[in-house]
């Protein structure tokens, strides 16, 4: 069964270009959740075949990261080129070969130096690398802004550098910060101290795991700090998504699905009065709307149009939030009902308008009078 499922997900992959649909005949599609797993399985199998080759006896070190491989070779350069040609004939995967030059070799983001058969390290940056990171004044959450420094400082602490190279790399990070308006320098120094402290704790308490829960919401500057403080006692950390940029909105050429084919939280407005109904569905909106219109099964909006002889239409029905996740559907439906009850321009006719819950949106709405974003 598993083999058939793999065949199904690898053989039935389609994409659109210029409003035409194409089927992939070779390779794995980007974005498919199973592509990474299948790629690793394939490379693992290929690696086993390579290790069974006769010339593999000249390999004393073989370290692989995805499809980048670091090798220490004890044979001749001619034997190395022959080995390279052999492994490229095993499959359609073609490896390139890069050998050390002047006792130096760049591998991933590290430069390795061969000093009398002793390897030393330094940080490597490609010639095309720039010092551009998210600027300090950009409308992003602090966590997203700090991600670049978390990476740079963690790499600095995890790479065994000599004191001079460590000092130079630290100054490089400070310069990157200054070039992106992260001032004063004490801000970046404090970030480094915090990360270094975490490294010390990790080395001292090697078996201790700090279990944090994470909640992802769009970033809103005026409520982010208040909300994070409210969640801190529960070991919950906020992670934020960014808002769509004007460029992203204007350059999105993907065909949009009609709203009546979408699912999520919806609002039906009566054509003849100010009554509204809030609901949720994981099916197509048109399917659920048809049931309301026939009042089968019974619903508040169906009963309303039957008793008053009013009408409803799919054009006067909106999708408020697009999602199929049950927990999100429940919370968002409660939120939209809660919001509709505060709107004096409409009359909510849902049968159930009170819920035995204490969702954070109530705290945010009452404390900051800030509406939640559409999803």
TrEMBL record:
Residues of the GIY-YIG domain: 261-348
Extent of the signal sequence: none
GO process terms (BP): DNA biosynthetic process
Membrane-crossing residue ranges in chain numbering: none
Entries under Pfam families matching the protein: GIY-YIG
Residue ranges annotated for the Reverse transcriptase domain, each copy included: 1-123
PANTHER family the UniProt entry points to: REVERSE TRANSCRIPTASE, REVERSE TRANSCRIPTASE DOMAIN-CONTAINING PROTEIN
Name of the protein this chain belongs to: Reverse transcriptase domain-containing protein
Organism: Photinus pyralis (Common eastern firefly)
């Amino acid at each position: 069964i598993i083999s058939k499922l793999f065949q199904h997900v690898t053989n039935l992959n389609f994409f659109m270009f210029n409003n035409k649909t194409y089927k992939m005949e070779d390779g794995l599609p980007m974005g498919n959740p199973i592509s990474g797993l299948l790629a690793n399985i394939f490379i693992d199998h290929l690696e086993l075949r390579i290790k069974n080759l006769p010339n593999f006896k000249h390999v004393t070190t073989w370290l692989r990261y995805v499809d980048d491989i670091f090798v220490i070779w004890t044979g001749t350069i001619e034997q190395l080129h022959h080995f390279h040609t052999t492994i490229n004939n095993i499959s359609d995967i073609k490896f390139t070969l890069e050998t050390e030059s002047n006792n130096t070799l760049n591998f991933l983001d590290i430069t390795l130096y061969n000093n009398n058969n002793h390897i030393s390290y330094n940080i490597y940056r490609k010639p095309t690398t720039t010092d551009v990171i998210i600027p300090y004044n950009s409308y992003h959450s602090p966590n997203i802004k700090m991600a670049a420094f978390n990476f740079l400082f963690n790499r600095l602490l995890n790479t065994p550098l000599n004191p001079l190279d460590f000092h130079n790399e630290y100054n490089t990070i400070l310069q990157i910060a200054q070039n992106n308006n992260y001032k004063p320098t004490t801000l970046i120094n404090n970030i480094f101290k915090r990360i270094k402290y975490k490294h010390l704790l990790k080395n001292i308490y090697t078996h201790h795991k700090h279990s944090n829960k994470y909640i992802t919401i769009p970033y809103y500057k005026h409520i982010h700090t208040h909300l994070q403080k409210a969640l801190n006692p529960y070991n919950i950390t906020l992670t934020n998504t960014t808002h769509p940029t004007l460029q992203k909105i204007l350059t999105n050429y993907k065909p949009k699905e009609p709203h009546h084919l979408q699912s999520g939280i919806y609002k039906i407005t009566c054509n003849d009065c100010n009554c509204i109904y809030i609901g949720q569905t994981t099916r197509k909106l048109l399917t659920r709307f048809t049931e309301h219109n026939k009042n089968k099964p019974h619903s508040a909006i169906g009963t309303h149009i039957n008793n008053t002889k009013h009408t409803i239409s799919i054009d006067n029905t909106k999708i408020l939030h697009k999602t199929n996740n049950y927990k999100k559907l429940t919370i968002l439906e409660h939120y939209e009902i809660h919001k509709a009850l505060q709107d004096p321009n409409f009359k909510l006719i849902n049968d159930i308008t009170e819920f035995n819950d204490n969702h954070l949106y109530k705290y945010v709405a009452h404390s900051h009078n800030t509406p939640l974003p559409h999803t």
